[in-house]
Amino acid sequence: MTTPTTDLYALRGVSSQKEDVHQAVRDLPKGLFPNAFCQLYPDFLSGKKEYALAFHADTAGTKPILAYLLWKETGLMDGWKAVVQDALVMNTDDLACVGMTDEFAVSATFSRNKHLIDASVVACVIQTAQELAQKWAKYGINLQLMGGETADAGDLIRTADIGYALAGKIKRENVIENRFQAGDVIVGLGSFGQAVWEDEPNSGIGCNGLTSARHDLLSSYYKENYPESYDPAIESVAYMGKYRLTDLSPEGTPIWKLLLSPTRTFLPYLKPVLETYRKQIHGIIHATGGGQTKCLKFAQNVHIIKDNLFPLPEVFRLIQASANTSWEEMYRTFNMGCRMELYTDPTIADELIARAQAVGIPAQIIGRVEASTETRLTIETERGRFIY
């Protein structure tokens, strides 16, 4: 008998909604702009009242375990390079949602089990961050790498954890606070395909839901050969799939390329867009934790309707089929091919789409906002109609 998907998530110790965290911070101050995607506070460092300060931290989640398995099995460093980008983008693109698109101070934290992760991986992680900073600088995105901590913590970390903390400031008059309005359209930016600043096509996976994706797709081979790659407490629901990382998907892509595709940054697109259209954009949502339901966290007395999402990339179809996950839960957990949403005046939608397509990003109007006495989200797809 198949274990219900929500039970699998709970048994694996993960949650797409982070209920415990939201409960813990429920009564804490929400900063200068309570409905902004990231918290912003007075710039106490400079004392300039016209500025707001943001400090943001995030990791690549459990994706480094996939990088570890790929490295152990094949010797490839590609996975480690990918998760460095993942951890950076989970910070930069969150901050972009409040209108902050350049001049970031960056601190790194890399924790490892030294008995398993050798110096070559440490060097790869540090060098990749430098390379990404140089690459993004060509698009006016400046990362000031300011060191950090590399911890040998085998008693705490079974394999490795990669995270970054970013700080930056923005003029308060330029902050984007989510204020979705009836009549807005939603311009969606695809997480798949190949943007001009990317070296190869992106599967669209991002960082979220990788614990379930890993255990649903990969076979017991990894349980038997790499017991350090999972928590013994989830023995009964670990590595329940049929693939090894080097196997090909039904459409001919190596499984590791689907799961370890680096999280796309949208900053090279958003930076010039915000310079022109900042005041006409009523909100930006980075569809990370919570997947396509992330927008609900910032919606107030509106009905958000998404009825024109992108065709579903292979990686999400494969994950769903592997565990027979309900489509309602898939849209709640994964970005499903659309990882950035711009809530905007319809008059500029065509221009926003054209600018995205010009740099290789799939873009289209994926939905709209209607007036409502209650906050709700409806997702309509060929796979069903889901109400959240």
Give a quick rundown of the structure:
The protein has 388 residues and is an alpha+beta fold. The chain contains twelve helices and twelve strands. The protein has helices at 5-11, 19-24, 63-74, 78-96, 119-137, 210-217, 221-225, 255-259, 267-277, 314-323, 327-333, 349-358, and strands at residues 41-42, 51-59, 104-112, 143-152, 160-171, 185-190, 281-286, 302-306, 338-344, 363-371, 376-381, 384-387.
Instruction: Indicate the CATH architecture.
Output: Alpha-Beta Complex
CATH topology: Phosphoribosyl-aminoimidazole Synthetase, Chain A, domain 2
* Fraction in beta strands: 15-25%
| Helical segment count | 12
Query: What class would the helix/strand composition place it in?
Result: alpha+beta
* Amount of helix: 25-40%
Biggest sheet descriptor: 7 strands, mixed
Shape: globular
Mean of residue pLDDT values? 94
Widest beta sheet: strand line-up: 7-9-6-10-8-11-12
Identify the CATH class.
Alpha Beta
Compute the number of structural domains. Answer: 1
Q: Rg, please?
A: 20 Å
- Contiguous runs where pLDDT drops below 50 for at least 5 residues: none
Helix and strand sequence: HHEEHHEHEEEHHHHEEHHEHEEE
The CATH homologous superfamily corresponds to: PurM-like C-terminal domain
